[in-house]
Amino acid sequence: xxxxxxxxxxxxxxxxxxxxxxxxxxxxxxxxxxxxxxxxxxxxxxxxxxxxxxxxxxxxxxxxxxxxxxxxxxxxxxxxxxxxxxxxxxxxxxxxxxxxxxxxxxxxxxxxxxxxxxxxxxxxxxxxxxxxxxxxxxxxxxxxxxxxxxxxxxxxxxxxxxxxxxxxxxxxxxxxxxxxxxxxxxxxxxxxxxxxxxxxxxxxxxxxxxxxxxxxxxxxxxx
Length: 223
Fold this sequence. Notes:
The chain is of the alpha/beta class. It contains eight helices and nine strands. The chain folds into two domains: 5-82, 3-Layer(aba) Sandwich (Glutaredoxin), CATH 3.40.30.10; 95-199, Glutaredoxin (3-Layer(aba) Sandwich), CATH 3.40.30.10. Helix 1 (12-20) crosses helix 3 and helix 5 (123-138) packs across helix 7. The radius of gyration is 21 Å and the shape is elongated. Pfam families: Thioredoxin (PF00085). GO terms for molecular function: protein disulfide isomerase activity.
């Protein structure tokens, strides 16, 4: 096991996805595989989830990961610690907005923005994260719609401007910057349908294009 970087976490799916983005020198271990690979040894795990990096094999002292709980963040951590460059697409499907770039983009670049205002500690926000990622994939590289998120605990000026006092708060901004708070169900289909209705897009859940995409309805009636 010398010379390999080992990462252990109770969140098997997240860490496996992160480790899958780098080469074979990085291993993601789950509770089921940890003992068989590293033997039974305790590493002062006091809270969950915990991610540790053993940069010089199991005999080295581990370093705790303390970043954001997103696929790209542990992936970047693994790449940094191992020195192995990640492969595959590294573009985030959910755009991160700050106080600064929010003013520069929303209502200014001709696109609609569907924005989640969240708090990193919020359990409802954590539960929503996988669904929000799927919504982002549905509209990834769409010319008219951007799925985005704002850390309301850091980007306080933007959060205060739109009276964000609960998490998550989800707001749709049209191309002119007019805002409308989303108050519907929080399923992938619900979000996609809401955006389609307001933005005039035709994205079904799953990232495919609908049968109506590119069709001129008036011409179709004539034909």
